[in-house]
Amino acid sequence: MPLAIALAALAGASDSIGFLEHSQLFMSFMSGNTTRFGVAASGFDWPAAMRFGSTISLFCFGAFVGTLLAAWAGRWRLSILLGVQAVLLSVGNLLPEGAEAFPLHAYPVVFALGILNATLQDEAGRSLALTYVTGTVVRFGTGLANMVLHKPAPSFWLQAPLWAGMTLGAVAGGFLQRLLGPDAFLVPAVLSAALAVIATAMTVAMPGSGYVSNEWSAQPDAHPDAPATAR
């Protein structure tokens, strides 16, 4: 739970910084980008449509790459995924700003947050909603209903802290952007790097622990019958 909350806060901060820094382009909230893509397309604003469409595609590709990296890395998946995210969050400012349709300086952050979604999963094998809160709020609401009917899923109790973590991260990201401008992305990058170091230490100290090993479960959102991909 502490790792999940820290990653949700990281995502909230990155999204808030990116929203302010990149002309209201969401870094991780693809529902908002999808709505804005639809509005732009309906108004034949093709540069804006390409801006939001390319961001959505890259975020999806990040989830794709993150899942493959996790399968390849085995019990080192946390260290590698968090390290890759730290690098990507750091390099965005080194790229040119790009045209309106292709915001190159935002792409590394979007890609990193797509990868982030492949990091953790719940007991049902679903990827945890670390970069968006719609699924979190829905699961919390349905969990409350299941408390009335019988009992909620074990992951129900994680939903409220996840929402709180992302919300506090978004508030912190707003302050950081006003203080540091585009350099504010270095703060979630440092957090990701610190978590990567912690994950590496845990992997060395507890090699058989379920916290660092995915030997007993398939990748997030895989078929229930899919075998674990760790070697």
Protein described:
It is a single chain. The relative contact order is 0.19. The chain has helices at 2-21, 30-42, 46-73, 77-91, 107-116, 134-149, 156-180, 186-205. Helix 1 packs parallel to helix 7 (156-180), helix 2 runs antiparallel to helix 3 and helix 3 (46-73) packs across helix 5. It is globular, with a radius of gyration of 18 Å. With 231 residues, the chain is mainly α. It has a single domain (2-205), classed as Growth Hormone, Chain: A, CATH 1.20.1250.
Low-pLDDT sequence parts: none
CATH architecture assignment: Up-down Bundle
Alpha plus pi helix count: 8
Estimated helix fraction: 55-70%
Strand content: under 5%
Structural class: mainly alpha
Number of E-state strands: 0
Shape: globular
The termini sit apart by 25 Å
The structural domain count equals: 1
Rg, Cα atoms, Å: 18 Å
- Overall pLDDT score: 85
Order of helices and strands: HHHHHHHH
- Report the CATH topology name: Growth Hormone, Chain: A
CATH class: Mainly Alpha
Biggest beta sheet attributes:
none
Give the SSE map.
Layout (H helix, E strand, L loop, with lengths): L1 H20 L8 H13 L3 H28 L3 H15 L15 H10 L17 H16 L6 H25 L5 H20 L26
